[in-house]
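Regression check, adenosine-5'-diphosphate case 195:
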Amino acid sequence: MPNIALFGPPGAGKGTQSQKLIQTYQYTAIALGDLLREQVSQQTALGQQINSYISMGKLVPDTLAISIVEAQVIAKKHSNRLLFDGFPRTVRQATALETMLASHQMTIDGVLFLDVPEAELVQRIQGRAKMGGRTDDQDTAKVATRMRIYADETLPVAQYYAQQGKLLKIDGTGLVEQVTKRIFAAVDKLSCADL
Ligand code: ADP
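Current build output:
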């Protein structure tokens, strides 16, 4: 199976769709947002530091994001199907990922770009905020910060993978099941190319 990354703006549905990929294709997921929130909930010194970024809608520093992911890659490198969710989010993270995977004779085979218009993203995040849960969803100014950082720092990652011919754009609008179908079709296509 191909190693893949789920890419897209905040609220695009990466978490939801990665659950589908785990269930159906037995992917081993590395979801940095979840790992960071775990640290925050443990209320360690590191967790408090992480929370100061997340709660402002900012990215945590690259060095921290990269070191957390690297530990996960080492722990999970024997899986023949890794799924990265919410990483890489900067070009520096993307190049670091390439280097760390190469050191274990691995690579990212495809990056699935979940494309959703910004107006719909904001609506979805507001809906998620009403259900409680994440503090970074509650405040519109912070959501706007996340969108701006996405455009400035994360979108260039799409270009990085497009240049390598690895970017697969997926329409992220419509029902969850419709998006899942599109994603599965893309993964099946990648798997065939892999053979
Ligand atoms: P969303 O995709 O909705 O923004 P995530 O759960 O993926 O949600 O991320 C939540 C927060 O965790 C981000 O807003 C950011 O503060 C931090 N974070 C997640 N992934 C990264 C990353 N690759 N680099 C830096 N910070 C990250």
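Comparison notes: The chain has a mean pLDDT of 95. The chain has eight helices and five strands. No diff flagged against the previous build.
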